[in-house]
Specification:
The chain has about 260 residues and is mainly beta. About 5% of the residues lie in helices and about 35% in strands. The strands form three sheets. Strands 3, 4, 6, 9 and 11 form a five-stranded antiparallel β-sheet that branches. A four-stranded antiparallel β-sheet has the order 5-10-7-8, with no helix packed on it. The protein is rod-shaped and about 165 Å long. The chain starts with 9 loop residues before the first strand and ends with a strand.
């Protein structure tokens, strides 16, 4: 009786459709390659594949996805850091705006008038007595009986007039009680003239050694060049001439032109 020779079992490995397979075959079946249809899904495990038996040639290109790789393998797949890109060009600086036009020059102011030298540079005229002047008359009409102290000529314009008088009684034993005055008048053709300032004392006591002062300040305008006169005069309450010739005045009058 003939006994068929038994063909030794051949171990073969293959990866079909991304699945590694291990099988046994006799000589007749070993002639064909195993494919995925010969292996039951999920029937093979790592224990069925000999370590080191698979090579790149046994694995179909594109058959293994990223999710099937180990964490270690994934970490090695990171590519080298690329070179730093070139710095972009700096943008061009914007043009400077045009300079605004210069404003128009203001009108030239009027030239100031030259001042005069000395402390009284702004004083146009000044009347002052070197010594006290006796007041010749008291009572009656001012235009007829006032005592003239001095005169000055003023040009037309506006003035600050400062009038000051210091009055004294000569004989204190003679009793009288007049009100005395220092009057500044511009000749304007009238009986009394234009009043540029009048300074009055209070009523003098009937007797006793007593002096009084009086002052006045006014802004006045003289319409045309004119002569100004400083007068001294006085009145008694009873309109009499009692005490005339017994009183003196020291006068100081300044005329400051302001316009």
């Amino acid at each position: 009786m003939r006994i068929n020779k038994i063909v030794p079992i051949v171990t073969a490995t293959a990866l079909v459709g991304g699945i590694a397979v291990l099988g046994t075959a006799n000589a007749a079946s070993a002639a064909r390659q195993l494919d995925g249809g010969d292996v039951k899904n999920s029937s093979l495990t790592g224990a069925d594949i000999k370590n080191g038996s698979l090579t790149g040639a046994d694995i179909k290109n594109g058959s293994i996805g990223y999710g099937e790789l180990s964490d270690y393998t994934k970490s090695k797949l990171k590519g080298a850091t690329g070179k730093t890109g070139a710095t972009g060009k700096t943008g061009a600086t914007g043009k400077t705006g045009a300079t605004g036009k210069t404003g128009a020059t203001g009108a030239k102011g009027a030239d100031g008038k030259d001042g005069k030298d000395g402390a009284s540079a702004s004083v146009e005229q000044h009347v002052t007595t070197d010594k006290p002047e006796t007041i010749a008359h008291l009572g009656g009409k001012f235009a007829e009986r006032a005592t003239e102290i001095d005169t000055v000529d003023l040009a037309a314009g506006t003035y600050l007039v400062n009038t000051y008088g210091a009055f004294d009684r000569l004989d204190d034993s003679q009793e009288s009680s007049p009100v005395l005055q220092l009057a500044v008048r511009a000749d304007n053709g009238s009986q009394w003239g234009q009043d540029l300032g009048t300074a009055f004392t209070g009523e003098f006591p009937e007797s006793g050694d007593l002096e009084q002062t009086a002052s006045a300040t006014r802004y006045v305008t003289v319409a045309e060049d004119t002569t100004v006169t400083v007068y001294a005069f006085g009145y008694n309450a009873d309109k009499s001439a009692t005490g005339e010739g017994n009183y003196t005045v020291a006068a100081d009058v300044s005329f400051v032109k302001i316009g």
